[in-house]
Each structure stands twice: as structure tokens, then as C-alpha cells.
Specification:
This protein is 73% helix and 4% strand. It is mostly helical. It has a domain at 282-497. The protein is globular, with a radius of gyration of 21 Å. The model has no long low-confidence stretch (mean pLDDT 93).
């Protein structure tokens, strides 16, 4: 491990949006502009704090801050390494356009309970940064559960029957997962006497093979719920009853990415590649997520509801991330971890587009989108760019991560997994490109107003921003935020060399 810097910056990065959440509640509905100014100000401060951590981490340093030591080897502690920084930078960066988009969305649709909405949103982002910068399993679990609770009011925001049912299913799945994780963490501490993340893992030599395989199963089940690994995925499409900015938060920035982040932390920083190879379980794990990749893609084909189609696309791509990490090769890990960032920019663009379409037309089914591309050209162009990236086409950023995933499958001589990755790309083409074609080249349906135009600027600018940067990061993967260098360092921290 390189030099350790003791700094409270990770703590402040967590607390800044908690402070904004309190100010949002105090401001309330009577001063909307002031209330939403707190949201924007906190987003900018959080980004500045997280961005300031990039340079020291890339220099090989680790930033630590300990709140309290509870037991020997167990503390409430923040530790910023390359992998945590990647998730933190993604969350902090995308909170800015999401905040502007949310303001435009709730005002255009005159949503009720806007103060509660922005309060919960801010708490979610605090929890996401806490997950990213957690120095050990206990700290990760605490913020993981805060994220669960903070997201629930957003899922049930509309307070109708489907929203309440979706929220109930979300809580049942995620709180059960939390209990499983608590059990797994207890077993881990009893075996190793520590919960601190270590590049390459720390469980080797602790426990019998059977117990370690059981422990890995518990961890993957616990984190796999939020990651949407089948058969734990059912809550995710049901949560699409939430407002579109919430869906974007769920799928691109916070909730499901926290699940994937937890899976990767366990695979690479608790167990480690060598132990997984010794246990002989990496092929089983890769097989499970490979099934999820293909099954989710096939299910997406059958969805006419646009957000449900995007939900199954998310499950498909999250499984690709875990597949890359499970292959345990340098290139596959690089592709999988890089896809955490790349998928976030592409998927949030797609949800922003879905929300813009709904805000202007109240259409939310794929079969209702004919001809809208000519009336909403910026929105559909952004949708086309993000779709191309998820299909793995250059020059969008998704091409780079999927290229490395393919290289990793070849590197490990796992041709079946190469076939899975390529099949996933073909399925992406099958369920995205008809939307683009119909939007631009078919006539609008009779019930669509001929004067439909773009959504308000506060909604269109964020989706153009995220689409643009999906292309920028596809051409210059180290532009501005150094994503590729951060990923390379994270992989080096695990594999060495």
C-alpha cells in the first residue's frame, strides 16, 4: 500500500448533501427557488470535494478518515482507493445534471411532495458516496442500508396502488438482502478478525473451502439483490413506477450500482482472485451472471413499456460488469470496472430521454413513439447515441468497456463467455434500434399532437450533456475525470504489477 493521507474530505463529501437535505426540509414548498438552490449548491460542492481526491489517489496515495473504532479490527471508517474513487466520481458528477433535470421534471409535471422528493434525493447521494468511500464491510453495510431507506420514499412518490406495491416489493427484497449481508459480515469477522478491504482479498487461509463458498454465496445474494442478478431481480422492473429522475438514480448512479460495487468489493477485496481460483467457484459465478446477461436481454425484447425495457437492459449490463470481474483477468476486470462509469452515463441519458418524452407527450410505451424523433430531435439523437454505446459501437464509451470485456474472455480462453458478451450486444441492437428507427422514420400516431416539441431546457440540456460526454469518454477515456487511469490503478491494486 502507498502513502496514507488522513483527511476529513471523504466525510465532508458524505455530509454536504445531508446538510442540503436538512436545508431543503427547512425551506419547504414556499420558496422553491431557494430550496432547489440548496440542491444545486450541494451537488457542486460535493463534486469539488470528490474531484480534489483524484490527483492524490492517482499518485498512489490512499485517503483515510476514521470516525470511531468499535472493536479491534472494526471501525466506522472512510478509505478512498482507486475503485471507491471511481464510483464516487461517477455519483458526484452525475448528481449535477440529475439535479437540474429533476427541477425541470417536477415543475413541468407539477409533481406533489417536491420537498420530500429533493430531501430523499439528497440523502440517496450522501449514502452513495458513503458506499463508495467505505473502508470496510461494516461501513459499507451502514450506508448501503441508508441508501435503501432513503430511496423508498422516491419509489412510492406517486402514492397510488402500483407505487405502494412497488415500494413494498423493493423493501422486502432489499431489507432481506441487508439481513443476509449482516450474517455474512459476522461470519467474516469471526474468521479473519477484520473487515477492512484489501486489494487481492484477506480471507485466504481463513476457514474451510466449504465455509468460504457458503460465505461467498451469502455475499453475492446480499449485494446481488440490488445488482439485479437473477433470480433476485424482480423488484427492479416493479420500481419503474417511480418518477423518471428516480429511475435514472436507481439505474445509473446509486442503488443498482451500489449492489454491483458491493459484489466487486467482495470478489476482489475480500476474497481475491487467487482464493476464488483455489475454491474453483469463479466459473460458477461467471455462469450465473452470464445467464442473467442473456435472459435479461431476451426479456427486454418483450417489453413495450419503455422504462421496463430500460430496466431489463440495466440488469443485462450490470451482469456484464460482474461477469468481467468474475473472469479474474486483467482485461476483463478493466472492462467490467470501466463499464460501471460508462454504463452510468449512457443509461442516465436513456432515462432522461424517456422522462422528456413523457413530460411532453405523456407517452411511455415503445409502440407510441413513432415519428417523435422529428419533433424532439435533440432528445432522440441523445437516445440514439446512448443506445449505440450500450450496443458497443464506437465512438461511444460503451465500445471501450465491451472491447476489454471481449479481450478478457479471449485472454482466459472462455469462448462461451465471449459469445455471451457478443450476444448481449446483438440483443441491445434488437431492442434499441427499432425505437430509433420508428422515432425518426415513421409517421406520428394520430393522437400525438402535431405541435409537440422538445421538453423544457432544464430537461434537454442534462440529457445532451450526458450524451455528449458518453461520446467524449469514448474517444478520450481519460478526459477530465481520468476514468481509465483510475480503473487501471484499481485493477493494479488487486492484481499487482
Amino acid at each position: 500500500m502507498g502513502e496514507v493521507i488522513y483527511s476529513a474530505k471523504p466525510l465532508w463529501a458524505v455530509l454536504v448533501s445531508m446538510g442540503a437535505a436538512l436545508l431543503i426540509l427547512l425551506t419547504g414548498e414556499k420558496a422553491r427557488n431557494l430550496r432547489e438552490s440548496w440542491t444545486i449548491l450541494a451537488a457542486l460542492i460535493k463534486f469539488g470535494l470528490v474531484f480534489s481526491l483524484i490527483k492524490p489517489v492517482l499518485a498512489g496515495k490512499t485517503i483515510e478518515y476514521t470516525l470511531i473504532t468499535l472493536l479491534p479490527g472494526v471501525a466506522l471508517q472512510f478509505r478512498v482507493d482507486a475503485f471507491g474513487l471511481l464510483f464516487g466520481v461517477v455519483a458526484a458528477t452525475l448528481w449535477i445534471p440529475t439535479s437540474f433535470y429533476s427541477i425541470g421534471y417536477v415543475r413541468t409535471l407539477n409533481e406533489h411532495g417536491q420537498s420530500r422528493y429533493f430531501f430523499s434525493f439528497a440523502m440517496c447521494l450522501s449514502a452513495a458516496i458513503g458506499v463508495a468511500f467505505a473502508g470496510n464491510l461494516l461501513t459499507l453495510l451502514i450506508f448501503y442500508e441508508i441508501l435503501t431507506i432513503a430511496t423508498w420514499p422516491l419509489v412510492i412518490h406517486h402514492e397510488d396502488t402500483s407505487a405502494i406495491a412497488g415500494g413494498r416489493k423493493y423493501l422486502v427484497y432489499t431489507l432481506t438482502a441487508g439481513c443476509i449481508l449482516l450474517l455474512a459480515i459476522g461470519i467474516t469477522y469471526s474468521l479473519a478478525g477484520t473487515l477492512d478491504f484489501v486489494g487481492g482479498g484477506f480471507l485466504a487461509g481463513h476457514g474451510s473451502p466449504g465455509l468460504l463458498i457458503l460465505l461467498l454465496t451469502l455475499f453475492i445474494a446480499g449485494f446481488g439483490v440490488k445488482a439485479g442478478i437473477m433470480p433476485f431481480h424482480e423488484w427492479l422492473p416493479s420500481a419503474m413506477v417511480a418518477p423518471t429522475p428516480v429511475s435514472a438514480l436507481l439505474h445509473a448512479v446509486a442503488v443498482v450500482k451500489a449492489g454491483v460495487f458491493g459484489c466487486v468489493r467482495v470478489i476482489l477485496f475480500v476474497f481475491g482472485p487467487e482464493l476464488l481460483q483455489q475454491l474453483g467457484v469463479w466459473t460458477i459465478l461467471a455462469g450465473v451472471v452470464a445467464f442473467t446477461v442473456v435472459a435479461a436481454g431476451l426479456l427486454a425484447l418483450g417489453q413495450d413499456h419503455l422504462k421496463r425495457r430500460l430496466a431489463f437492459s440495466t440488469i443485462n449490463n450490470l451482469a456484464l460488469i460482474i461477469l468481467g470481474v468474475s473472469l479474474l483477468s486483467k482485461n476483463a476486470m478493466t472492462g467490467g470496472i470501466l463499464h460501471i462509469a460508462n454504463h452510468a452515463f449512457m443509461k442516465i441519458t436513456l432515462f432522461f430521454c424517456a422522462g422528456a418524452i413523457y413530460a411532453k407527450t405523456h407517452k411511455d410505451h415503445v409502440s407510441q413513439l413513432d415519428g417523435l424523433g422529428r419533433q424532439m430531435p435533440f432528445t432522440f439523437a441523445a437516445f440514439a447515441i446512448a443506445s449505440m454505446g450500450l450496443c458497443g459501437l464506437p465512438p461511444v464509451n460503451g465500445f471501450i468497456s465491451k472491447w476489454f470485456l471481449c479481450l478478457g474472455a479471449v485472454e482466459t480462453h472462455q469462448i462461451v463467455f465471449l459469445f455471451v458478451i457478443l450476444t448481449s450486444a446483438m440483443l441491445d441492437v434488437a431492442f434499441f434500434f427499432p425505437i430509433i428507427y420508428n422515432g425518426f422514420f415513421k409517421k406520428p400516431l394520430p393522437d400525438v399532437a402535431s405541435k409537440v416539441d422538445e421538453a423544457p431546457l432544464l430537461m434537454v440540456l442534462p440529457l445532451c450533456f450526458t450524451a455528449l460526454f458518453s461520446v467524449v469518454f469514448g474517444i478520450f477515456p481519460n478526459a477530465f475525470l481520468n476514468f481509465f487511469n483510475i480503473v487501471r490503478l484499481a485493477v493494479t491494486n488487486v492484481l499487482g504489477g
